[in-house]
Amino acid sequence: MKIISVNEPRKLANILLSVNVGWSHEPIGKRGISHFLEHSIFLGSEEYPEPDTEVAKYGVNLSGETQPDRTIFFFSSLPEDAAEVLEILLSLIYSPAFSPEKVEEEKESKIIPAVVKESDYAPWELAYEWARNLIFEWDFRYSMGTEEELRGIGIEELREWHKRYYNKHNSVALIPEGIEFPDFEIPESGTNPEVQEIKYEEREKVIEKGLENAEIVCAFPLHKYDIRAYLLSTLLGNFPTSKLWQEFRREAYMVESRVEWHNGKGGFFLYAGANSRDFESICRKMGRFLEDLRFSQEEVEIAKKTLAIEMLERDNSIYRMENLLHLDPEMRFGSLERILEAIEELELRESNEYASQVFNLEKMRRVMVR
Q: Do 285 and 152 lie in a common domain?
C-alpha cells in the first residue's frame, strides 16, 4: 500500500483510504457493483460486526464514496484515537463479512433506489455530465448500475470483485504525520482494473428540454496531469477579475471553469448559462475568445492569490484529504503546501503557452441543454 504522510497541524486527524477501482471500470452485467460493495463493506467484518457502534465510542462516523476511478473511505477523529479507528476501518475494507441478510437488505433499501436517472439532474448538471461522458469516455447514467444488473449481483459476485481489486498494490492511504499505520495484513494478490471505455461518435450533443435559456459546456481533453491547469481555471473562472466572467457577463447569468482528472487523463470544462436560447452566438463568441486568449502579469498574480485562498478554504474542511486527492491524484506533490509552491512559481509565459495548448478548437467537445 502506498502511504502518504500529510502535514496536519490541527486538533483533528483526517484519514482517507482509496482503493483504485470505481464505476468506470465496471463491465456490462456488473454495473453498480462498486457502489454496492462500498455499502456492503460498512455492514461489518468478522471482528467488528457492528462497526457503527465500535467507532461511536470515539465520537466518529465512517464515510465512503464511489467515484469513477476509485472508492474512498474516510473519517475524522481526535488524533489520539486515529490509530484505533483506522484499524477498525482496515478490517472492514479488507475483511468484510458479507452477511447475506444485511447485504440483501442494503441492496433493496439503499442500492437499487440510488440507480441514476437523467431526470434527476438539473439542466446545467446534465450538460456537465454529458461533457464528462465525451471527454472521459464513460456513461454517467450507469454510475450506480441498473436495477436489472444489480438484482443479478449477489454475495459471490461481491466477493469476487473484492478479491480481484481490494489489494495492497491497488490501495493508497493518506494519513497525518505522526500517526502510525497499524500492522494490518492487507491482501497481496489481485490485479488493477481496466477502464471500460465508450467511444462516442459525436463531438457535440444537444439535449432538448424546452428551456427558455441554454446551458452550454465546452470541454477539452487533457492528456497528462499538469499543475498549470488549476491556475488557468482560476484565470478564466467565475470571479470578478476572471476573463470568462468579464467577457460573457451580459450574455450569461453564470460562468464557470473546472478541471478534473480521472484514470490518468483530464478534462478542462468551460460552462456558460445563457440568458436566452441564442446559444449559437455565444458559441461563436466563445471560439473567438479562446483563439485570442492572452493574460497579463497582473491577471496571473491576482489568480495565484485567488486560487491560494480557494484551496486553503477547502483545506480547512473535513474533506481535506479528499480535496488533496482530487488536486493531486497521482500524489506527485503529496501536500497542499507543495502544490501552492509550484503554482506560485509559474510564470506568465507558461500560462499563455498552456492556454494555447489546451484550447484547441478542433478537439473541443460541446454539450447544450436547451
A: no
